[in-house]
Amino acid sequence: MKALLIIDVQNDFIKGGTLAVPDSEQVIPVINDLMEKFNLILATQDWHPRKTAHFEEWPVHCVAGSKGADFPFDFHKEKIVQIFYKGTGNRDDGYSGFEATNIELVDYLKKNGISQLYICGIALEFCVKSSALDALKEGFQVFLIRDAIANFSREQEKIEQEYEELQKAGAKIVLSHQV
Predict the structure, then answer these.
(1) Structural domain total, the chain
(2) What is the pLDDT of residues 15-61, one digit of tens each?
(3) N or C: which end of the chain has fewer CB atoms below 10 A?
(4) Alpha-carbon distances, residue 173 vs 14, 62, 145, 165 (angstroms)
(5) Domain at 78, CATH number
(6) Max Cα separation, the chain?
């Protein structure tokens, strides 16, 4: 069984957001198309409190219940079966979807018989990478959908290094048309 895990497609991470990731709005139509290929679609959301140590390192973003924490209007959120909130504590960065506080992601996946996890979203170097590495540690077969992942860095060499590290850890890199 397979599932699609969409990482942090939220207003604050796209153009005009407080922590906008370059060209992140371009992955939204790709992700919307991908949702048609999966029966089980899951998503994570940063869901930070107004005051958190996380904001000592990063600009204020994705405050629980704020417009910035919402999904963009052109994102097909109605297809999402379950949302996993992360970064909800005062000392909780919540990079990985496996750090969700409302529902234990690993238990949810195992309960639903998921062995293959297809991951996309925002941003490769932080939350996508952390979620993928944790999924691998938990024994899931991980596929990163490269054209459905926005990168924080604009340096191609750094992006390639991230993908190489994830491949060495066991992730497979695919494109959306290969799913």
Answers:
(1) 1
(2) 999 999 999 999 999 999 999 999 999 999 999 999 999 999 999 99
(3) N
(4) 23, 28, 6, 11
(5) 3.40.50.850
(6) 42
